[in-house]
Write a structure and sequence with these properties.
It is a multi-pass membrane protein. Strands 1-2 form a two-stranded antiparallel ribbon. Helices cover 69% and strands 2% of the residues. It has 511 residues and is mainly alpha-helical.
């Protein structure tokens, strides 16, 4: 009887031991190649796994030895952020994978389908109106006109940002610990550098934009993406991160020119000596992202051509009424939302990921899941992580330190006001007129919503409210800016005065 009871128990033990052995062999075989079905297969897989691990370690060591770069995909090395004087490492997360989920790919396909509808409607309308297909991109050609002037301006700004701040840091680092009055020397040198910044990165792009009458898209390239904003923020981060190390370490040399040059092109505004790197470049992925970026530009062209220009071209010729304004705002909600999503996808996803891939820059957290935000506070933090990090570490924390840590609200409001002024500066210079719609929505309503829709709101209803506010805000911007654009054309100022330039023409233009 005892033998009968022991037999099933031994059988169960043998089955469990067999399953454990199979699981161990499968786990050990993940690093190696398949060696067949023979009895020595498990040993071969284990040996191959050890060889695979050894080869990976050897390859990583070669990358570190030859390139002087951090090991790829290793958290705790490379890119980090400063908080309270310490550096916290950023894991090399490929943030672009957020939009690679199957559900998001379906939404992406829906946007492509809408673009196809725009193209088909353009062809049909042209055939009905004129009996032939008229394919003209006059608006596109006008918006990106005078590109040689833009490239020449960019080259001047780039060479200045590359050479002058770096040489100033070298001069200061070599003399700071030897001069008799180091503080006076520092004040004179950085004062001269600040004056050069104001001249070359401040007044020069404004002069080029106004003097050469650059069209809107070319102005955006000069002012926002390439010159006045990006280079200022990058040079500031470079100096801020390099100077403290030289002060506290007299024997520490300034950063190498190659690391600073890499920083000027990589898609981040926080300077570090090294960043997480990917092992190779996927050129097909780069080409796909640039193609998507161009597709977004043509998508925006069709939206403006079909949904905005026909509505707002002759609006200034009609009698003004509140009803017409409200209807125009709601009619502009759809194209405004499309333009917002296209701007996000084109720049924060396609453009930055293309440059990150070319430079093997592994930290792709350019944005987070802002579309799931239930508060505007979360939306501001996740919409554009690249700019948010710079504002937080170099503006908010510094202001909070100046306020002696007593008022977080004052520091936050200062950041909001500064950001609103910069946004309004870009819009004013690119469109060629002053109409503080962006400043009002950002500095007034944005601050109010930041307190009302705060992080305590977790219900999905608040996500609906956030999207509703975004829709209405985009409609207001598209409507009012389009009205002002055509009012400037139909009712130009006879005599340019200060108050005439400050007063929107759409308020009085009824041609």
């Amino acid at each position: 009887m005892e033998q009968g009871q022991r037999a099933p128990g031994r059988a169960r033990q043998r089955k469990r031991a067999g399953r454990r052995q199979e699981e161990e062999e499968e786990t050990q075989g993940l690093d190696g190649e398949e060696q067949g079905q023979s009895g020595s297969g498990g040993i071969g897989r284990r040996r191959k796994g050890r060889w695979g691990a050894a080869l990976q370690e050897l390859w990583a060591a070669l990358l570190l030895k030859v390139g002087g770069l951090p090991l790829p995909h290793q958290p705790g090395r490379g890119c980090g952020h400063r908080e309270g004087g310490s550096v916290h490492a950023l894991p090399p997360v490929l943030g672009g994978e957020l939009l690679e989920v199957e559900h998001f790919r379906t939404i992406y396909h829906m946007f492509i389908a809408v673009l196809c509808v725009f193209i088909v409607s353009t062809v049909v309308v042209d055939f009905i109106d004129q009996g032939r297909y008229v394919l003209d991109f006059d608006l596109f050609i006008f918006a990106f006109g005078r590109l040689p002037t833009v490239l020449a301006t960019w080259l001047v700004m780039f060479l200045y940002t590359l050479l002058v701040p770096y040489k100033a840091l070298q001069l200061w680092a070599g003399s700071y610990h030897t001069v008799r009055f180091p503080r006076l020397f520092t004040a004179i040198l950085w004062g001269a550098l600040l004056a050069c910044h104001a001249t070359v990165l401040g007044f020069y792009p404004i002069y080029m934009v106004i003097q050469h009458q650059l069209p809107p898209a070319s102005r955006f390239i000069v002012v926002l993406e390439q010159v006045s904003i990006r280079f200022v923020m990058k040079s500031h981060s470079f100096l801020r991160e390099a100077v403290p190390g030289i002060i506290h370490g007299p024997s520490l040399p300034p950063p190498a020119m190659s690391t600073y040059l890499y920083f000027l092109f990589c898609p981040t505004l926080i300077y570090r000596e090294s960043y997480p790197r990917t092992p190779y470049v996927r050129w097909k992925y780069v080409a796909q992202n640039f193609a998507k970026f161009l597709g977004c530009l043509f998508y925006s062209y069709f939206i403006l051509e079909r949904l905005c220009i026909p509505v707002f071209t002759n609006m200034s010729k009609q009698p003004f009424s509140i009803k017409t304004l409200v209807l125009s705002i709601f009619n502009a909600t759809l194209p405004g939302t499309f333009l917002l999503l296209l701007a996000f996808f084109a720049f924060l996803h396609c453009w930055l990921n293309a440059f990150a891939e070319m430079l093997r820059f592994a930290d792709r957290t350019f944005y987070k899941d802002w579309w799931n935000s239930t508060s505007f506070a979360t939306y501001y933090r996740t919409w554009n992580v690249v700019v948010h990090d710079w504002l937080y570490y170099y503006l908010y924390q510094d202001l909070f330190w100046l306020f002696r840590g007593r008022s977080r609200v004052a520091a936050m409001l200062s950041v909001f006001i500064t950001s609103a002024i910069v946004h309004e500066y870009v819009i004013t210079l690119c469109f060629g007129f002053f109409y503080p719609v962006m400043f009002t929505l950002f500095a007034i309503f944005g601050v109010i919503f930041n307190f009302l829709l705060n992080d305590k709101r977790k219900s999905p209803i608040w996500n609906i409210i956030m999207w509703t506010c975004l829709f209405i805000g985009q409609g207001i911007q598209v409507c009012l800016y389009c009205q002002e654009w055509y009012a400037q054309i139909h009712c130009p100022l006879e005599q340019k005065t200060f108050w005439g330039l400050m007063t929107p023409r759409s308020w009085s233009c009824r041609s």
